[in-house]
Amino acid sequence: MLSHTFKSVMIALAFGAITASAQDFDDPIPSRRITEYQMPPATQTHEFARVPDTNMVLLSQMSNSNLVKIELDPTTEEFIALHSFPMGKDSTSGLHGVWPSTVYPGMMWLSLQYENKLLLVDPGKESWTTPTILQTIDIPAPGNGPHCVFEIDNRVWAGLKEKSNQTEKYYVFSADVSNTTDYTLYESLNSPVFIKEEPTTGLIYVTQDWDSSIMRIDVTTDETEQLPIPPSFGNTAVGMTTAYGAMSGVWFTLAGNGTGGTGTFGHIGSDGKMEFFQLQNSLGANSGLLHLADATTKDGGPALWILSTSLLSKDSPDALIHVTFDADVTSITGEEYISMPTQHSSVHRVVPLDSTVLVSELSNFTIAQLSYSNTVAGKWLPSDSVNGSAVYAEAG
Ligand SMILES: *[C@@H]1O[C@H](CO)[C@@H](O)[C@H](O)[C@H]1NC(C)=O
Ligand SMILES: *[C@@H]1O[C@H](CO)[C@@H](O)[C@H](O)[C@H]1NC(C)=O
Ligand SMILES: *[C@@H]1O[C@H](CO)[C@@H](O)[C@H](O)[C@H]1NC(C)=O
Ligand SMILES: *[C@@H]1O[C@H](CO)[C@@H](O)[C@H](O)[C@H]1NC(C)=O
Ligand SMILES: *[C@@H]1O[C@H](CO)[C@@H](O)[C@H](O)[C@H]1NC(C)=O
């Protein structure tokens, strides 16, 4: 039996032949593609960031504590060269965080989780030049285990993922970039991951994954406050990003647990209230959302890139999801699903470049790169083409 869709297309083609109008069959064909780039073999391929204003991406491989320098083609952003450098005293140093400094343009912050150190490095101009360590910050006791590192307004921040040897507690570290003896350790829950600034209030928000809560820090008073994730929405707050304009505030994702996720992510704006959004498409309903990035464009309006990962549950897909919102960012208006080519790869981070988007496939030493031709993210398979009725109407 012919499906309705197929019949509609047949009718459209038949009418098209007579009326020779309606569909622009000569238009360039929209396409999207994912290229997987093989990195040096390692069991954990983690975080990456572009060195601002260059064609270089730095990537951490935690399991062997190697830093991979990737050179991009300046036009297409394709990977054209890579070289790998051991960081720390040996392969157990636990290189994890990678973040650009703005105080020192061109320099990058790295974290050595198992050496309890932060490094400021000059990555070097070419992919083959060895990075130079400019500064080492030893995390002071009782702090232990810097995981993700960020620089916010003249201060370097790190979420300390390991339980303190002295107090058995967890902390967030913050120090003045130009005077690192001026530091603060904020006691947190188990355990701090992403640290971001809400742009209107200047308040700092920290996701804490296992205790499923968000900590708010007022840096003017050093007071902290916990905002627990209501279990009815999900659990395990991990990824967080700052957004501006209509999206203004911090956005965060819930990764779920061993039984899967709830396809839920949230926002905190200048009023300090948590607001939750849930993916509507059945593909996203049980997804474990690990990380996200702003995807807003002038033409496309407010949007996010959100990563669903199989890291916590094999029931969650490894997928990149493009979510669009209405102009006021009160509801979701579109969801585009891009299934990652390597499933069960525990995808870890998403970082948009200028014209492509990169995703790290953690357990399979791969970086996936998404690119579009003759269309843009969010316009892929517009809903009006799915059941063919638009074609039928136009042809008629
Ligand atoms: C904590 O204790 C472990 C086990 O003794 C040790 O390997 C590690 O270096 C200590 N870390 C810190 C930051 O003191
Ligand atoms: C650096 O910070 C420490 C601790 O706050 C302070 O005592 C010291 O005066 C500062 N040094 C400079 C050069 O500002
Ligand atoms: C996992 O999360 C779900 C809700 O998202 C919750 O009902 C369940 O109790 C959690 N399981 C564990 C082991 O925490
Ligand atoms: C990806 O890595 C996981 C963990 O090592 C492994 O089980 C799986 O087979 C790998 N997938 C592919 C397609 O190689
Ligand atoms: C496609 O089908 C759905 C369900 O029948 C309908 O609501 C929707 O309007 C249709 N799309 C278009 C563009 O006609």
Mean residue pLDDT: 92
Note the total helix count: 2
Roughly how many Å apart are the termini? 23 Å
The low-confidence runs, each spanning 5 or more residues with pLDDT under 50, are 1-22, 384-396
In CATH terms, what is the architecture?
Answer: 7 Propeller
Main beta-sheet strand count, sense and barrel state? 4 strands, antiparallel
State the CATH class. Mainly Beta
The count of strands amounts to 28
Adjacency order of strands in the biggest sheet: 1-28-27-26
Q: Radius of gyration over alpha carbons?
A: 23 Å
CATH topology: Methylamine Dehydrogenase, Chain H
CATH superfamily membership, which one? YVTN repeat-like/Quinoprotein amine dehydrogenase
Q: In percent, how helical is the residue content?
A: under 10%
Number of domains: 1
Shape: globular
Q: What is the topology?
A:
Blueprint: H1 4-19, E1 31-38, E2 45-50, E3 56-61, E4 66-72, E5 79-86, E6 95-100, E7 108-112, E8 117-122, E9 132-138, E10 146-152, E11 155-160, E12 170-176, E13 179-188, E14 192-197, E15 204-208, E16 213-218, E17 223-228, E18 237-243, E19 249-254, E20 264-268, E21 274-278, E22 289-294, E23 303-308, E24 319-325, E25 332-339, E26 347-352, E27 357-361, E28 366-373, H2 389-395
Antiparallel strand pairs: 1-28, 2-3, 3-4, 4-5, 6-7, 7-8, 8-9, 10-11, 11-12, 12-13, 14-15, 15-16, 16-17, 18-19, 19-20, 20-21, 22-23, 23-24, 24-25, 26-27, 27-28
Helix pairs in contact: 1-2
The structure holds 2-acetamido-2-deoxy-beta-D-glucopyranose (NAG) (5 copies).
One 2-acetamido-2-deoxy-beta-D-glucopyranose binds at residues 116, 144, 165.
